[in-house]
Structure prediction request, 198 residues.
Amino acid sequence: MILTIEQQDGLAELINIAFSRTAASLSELTSQRVLLNVPDVAVYPSGELVPTLAKMIHNDVATIHQVFHGPMEGDALLLLDYQSAVLLTELLTNDSSVQRLDSSAREVLTEVGNILLNACLSMFGDLLHTHLAFSVPRLKVEALQIMLNQLIAGKEELRYALVIYTGFRLRSSAVNGYLVLVLGVASLNRLLEALEEA
Prediction:
C-alpha cells in the first residue's frame, strides 16, 4: 500500500498540528521548551514495525499506551527509553533523587502520558470533525518487541499499519521520546477520506 505525495503531505500537516499541541502541553508541564522533529508518515507491513521502531529506541522502553475508538481505531503511544522516563519524572516532580521507575514515578508518567496523548488525539478528532473515544492509558516497561506484539489497532487485522511518529527533546535536558500512532488499513482509508472532505 503506497500513499500518494498529496496524501502524505495532508497527513503530515494534520499530524504536525496535533503533535505541536502535544508538545505545547509537555512544555507547560515541565516549564521547558520542547523541540519537535518533523513528523514521519509511512505505511509499513506489520512485519516491519519492529525493525522500524527499533531504530528509534533500544533495549527496554517505557510506553504509555492508549487505544482509541470511533470512526478510526488504533493505538497511540508515548515511547521513552528508560533513562529518559526517569529524567522526565524528575522534571515533573522536581525531585532529583528519582533513580528508577517505582510505583510513584509510574503513576506520574501515566498521568502525563494521559495528558499528552489526549491532547494529540483530541486535536486529531477536532481537525477531522469526528469524535474519538480513548481507553484508560497503561504504562509498561518492557522490551520493544513485547510491546509491539500487544498493539491492537482496534478490531482490524494489522497486515499493514500507518505509522506516524515524531521525536521530541526537552531543550535543557536529555529527555528524548517519540509519539507514535498506529492504524490498520480500514482506519487509514477512513482517515484519507476524511482528509479529502476537510
User: Anything to note?
Assistant: Residues 5-30 form the longest helix (26 residues).
